[in-house]
Specification:
Elements lengths: L3 E4 L9 H11 L4 E6 L11 H10 L4 E6 L7 H6 L4 E4 L7 H10 L3 E6 L17 E5 L14 H15 L4 E5 L7 H7 L3 E4 L1 H4 L4 H11 L2
Parallel strand pairs: 1-8, 2-3, 3-4, 4-5, 5-6, 6-7, 7-8
């Protein structure tokens, strides 16, 4: 599968959001990533569906959303209506992850699931028939700019082996501490969908950084 880069706008300059998005587009960004935090599931608050609507006015690139929220089913329809095409709820946030994922597909979007660093990768097996991607958290969710957890490399490799035996078309996304320096090794480990926030939007030249990361991940 072609590797994809999705810059996380949580790290962008919201006073100059369109400028930053346009720069990332020129560099070749494939998607844009929305980190949704409710202050309950994780100890931070970010933004809601209105940002997705705003992004739809700025870019025609696909949007994916990572729902770090306690009750994802209450908000999934709103995010899809706002223009999000791929949604990752947390497997840890729902007592019935199957129903949560099914709601995403029933509303016409593509579904993924997210695994925290300590969540067994075997957890994906219960929803394997409904999902298009698994998001491996390589930091503890809730804040940008954290350092990559080294054991995530091994988790990605084991997950890739599991998915290849069950449904090879499922992508592995990785979020947390993804940098120009480690994106190549993450690709070798088995990831093919890379979420990067600070590494992109805090670079001196956003366009050039996106271009460099896309080159490195190939």
């Amino acid at each position: 599968m072609k590797p994809l880069l999705t810059p996380s706008i949580l790290a962008a300059d919201f006073a100059n959001l369109e400028r930053d998005i346009n720069a990332a587009e020129r560099g070749g960004a494939d998607y844009f990533h929305l980190d949704i935090m409710d202050g309950h599931f994780v100890p931070n608050i970010s933004f809601g569906p209105w940002v997705a609507k705003l992004m739809r006015k700025i870019t025609d690139r696909p949007l994916d959303a990572h729902l770090m929220i306690t009750n994802p089913r209450e908000y999934i329809p709103e995010f899809i209506e706002a223009g999000v095409e791929l949604i990752y709820p947390h497997i840890e946030a729902s007592y019935d992850i199957y129903r949560t994922v099914q709601m995403i597909t029933d509303h016409g979007a593509r579904a993924g699931i997210t695994l925290n660093p300590a969540t067994p990768i075997s957890s994906v097996e219960g929803v394997i028939d409904l999902i298009d991607a698994v998001l491996v958290m390589s930091v503890c969710p809730g804040f940008g700019g954290q350092k990559f957890i080294p054991s995530s490399m091994d988790r990605i490799t084991k997950l890739r082996e599991l998915l290849d035996s069950l449904k090879p078309s499922i992508r592995i996304a990785v979020d947390g501490g993804v940098t120009l320096e480690n994106i190549g090794n993450l690709r070798k480990a088995g990831a093919d969908f890379f979420i990067a926030g600070s590494a992109v939007f805090e670079a001196p030249d956003i366009e050039e950084r996106v271009r460099a990361m896309k080159k490195a991940m190939k």
